[in-house]
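Anyone opening a protein record will find just a pair of labelled lines. With that in mind, the following record should read easily:
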Amino acid sequence: MPSYSPDFMPVESLWRWLREDVTYHHCYTTAEDLLHTVSEFTARINQCPMTIADRLWVKDSLIDEEEIVRVIKQPKLE
C-alpha cells in the first residue's frame, strides 16, 4: 500500500461527505453557523449507522471501471 492511499482511508470519504452536505455551494457568515451545521450533519448521520458503514467501508480492492476513468490519458498540449 502506498504511503498515501485515499481509497483505503475511510476518513477521506467522511471529509468528502461532510463537504458535499455542508460546504459545497454555501458560504457561512460566521464560524458559529458553520459549526452548528456540522453538528447537525453529525447528529443526522449518527442516527443511521448502516449508512455510515456503507459510505465509509474501506476498499480492499479497486474497481476496474472506476480506475479506468481515473487514468484516461489527457490529450497533450502542443
